[in-house]
């Protein structure tokens, strides 16, 4: 009974006893852990990858594989360091002609990695195939234009000046296929809506796949003027040009009714007597035709909302 009493005395709740027991358990655990790390084990580990190629001449079209999974055998300590990422150099795959390589079959990797994984034996590759898309790098200069649909302006307002883009071109660098597929000019887009005042903003040059395209400069300054439109309903004189020889056209009326929208700042330039409804008869032959005249003599940026057609008989 004295033996069991001794055991009970040790386990009896006592801060000093339990501290000693805890330290013993901790020391035993540490000893067991480090002893276990000296044994050999097999496991699957994800190894980081780096592709070695000339980055001055080539560029990836999509993100390259970042890792490869290998089943390896090695000392526990080396496996532990790899698993937790402590001082883990990436595996390097050299590419002499990167644009010619579209895929790397997993079964070919052990021979490539053997010298880079001297602490491990590669049992097999878990990753089936590494797919690559690397192209020669290309450079191209394109002009810039601005796409301004009428819906971008507030109702009753419109563009009343040339569009100024500074600079008016951009140097693009990226994958050859992507760069060559871009249109010239490249159209800029602005996010603003319901514009009713003069516009001066810095606009980003963007593309649908611009993560692979370097732009110089990446942003440009865009400026244009906006004005309120004033509607005018008038009748303007008809003017025929290029009338065929020896033909006398008969016109039902000598004036045409029209509706135009004049920029407010240009109302002083609007003179109905100076506006003419022009009909070009150069390609007309005998018979009766119905035509839509063209207005001339309007102030700049005036919009024709409506104009009556006329009937001409030869």
How would you describe this protein?
- The protein folds into 4 domains: about 1-35; about 40-130; about 135-225, Beta Complex (RNA Polymerase Alpha Subunit, Chain A, domain 2); about 230-314, Beta Complex (RNA Polymerase Alpha Subunit, Chain A, domain 2), CATH 2.170.120.
- About 15% of the residues are buried.
- The chain contains 5 helices and 23 strands.
- The chain is elongated.
- The strands form 6 sheets. Strands 9, 16, 18, 19, 21 and 22 form a 6-stranded mixed β-sheet that branches.
- The chain has helices at about 1-10, 15-35, 75-85, 110-115, 175-180; strands at about 40-50, 60, 65-75, 90-95, 105, 120-125, 130, 135-145, 155-160, 165, 170-175, 185-190, 200-205, 215, 220-225, 225-240, 250, 255-265, 275-280, 290, 295, 305, 310-314.
- By secondary structure, the chain is α+β, with helices and mostly antiparallel strands.
Question: Which properties best describe this structure?
Answer:
single chain, 314 residues, alpha+beta, RNA Polymerase Alpha Subunit, Chain A, domain 2, six-stranded mixed beta sheet, five-stranded mixed beta sheet, 5 helices, 23 strands, elongated
Shape, please? elongated
- Work out the strand percent: 35-45%
Order of helices and strands: HHEEEHEEHEEEEEEHEEEEEEEEEEEE
Protein structure class: alpha+beta
Instruction: Determine the N-to-C terminus distance.
Output: 138 Å
Rg on CA atoms, Å: 40 Å
Question: Biggest sheet: strands, sense, closure?
Answer: 6 strands, mixed
Number of separate structural domains: 4
Which percent range fits the helix content?
10-25%
Strand segment tally: 23
What is the averaged pLDDT score? 84
Number of helices: 5
- Poorly predicted residue ranges: none
């Amino acid at each position: 009974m004295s033996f069991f009493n001794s055991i009970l005395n040790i386990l009896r709740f006592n801060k000093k006893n339990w501290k000693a027991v805890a330290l013993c358990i901790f020391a035993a655990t540490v000893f067991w852990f480090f002893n276990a790390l000296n044994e050999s084990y097999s496991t699957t580990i994800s190894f980081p990858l780096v592709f070695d190629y000339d980055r001055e001449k080539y560029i990836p079209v999509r993100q390259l594989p970042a890792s490869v999974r290998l089943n390896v055998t090695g000392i526990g300590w080396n496996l532990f360091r790899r698993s937790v990422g402590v001082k883990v150099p990436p595996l390097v795959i050299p590419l002499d002609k990167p644009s010619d390589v579209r895929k790397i079959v997993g079964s070919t990797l052990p021979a490539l990695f053997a010298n880079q994984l001297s602490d491990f034996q590669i049992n097999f590759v878990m990753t089936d195939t590494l797919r690559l898309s690397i192209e020669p790098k290309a450079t191209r200069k394109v002009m810039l234009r601005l796409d301004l649909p009428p819906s971008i302006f507030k109702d009753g307002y419109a563009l009343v000046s040339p569009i100024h883009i500074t600079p008016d071109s951009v140097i693009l660098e990226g994958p050859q296929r992507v760069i060559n597929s871009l249109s010239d000019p490249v159209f800029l887009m602005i996010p603003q809506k319901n514009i009713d005042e003069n516009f001066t903003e810095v606009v980003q040059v963007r593309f649908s796949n611009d993560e692979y395209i370097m732009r110089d400069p990446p942003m440009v300054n865009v400026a244009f003027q906006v004005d309120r439109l004033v509607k005018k309903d008038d009748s303007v004189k008809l003017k025929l040009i290029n009338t065929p020889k020896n033909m006398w056209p008969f016109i039902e009326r000598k004036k045409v009714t029209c509706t135009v929208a004049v920029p407010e700042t240009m109302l002083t330039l609007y003179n109905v007597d100076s506006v003419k409804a022009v009909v070009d008869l150069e390609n007309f032959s005998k018979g009766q035709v119905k035509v839509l005249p063209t207005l001339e003599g309007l102030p700049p940026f005036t919009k024709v909302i409506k104009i009556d057609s006329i009937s001409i008989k030869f």
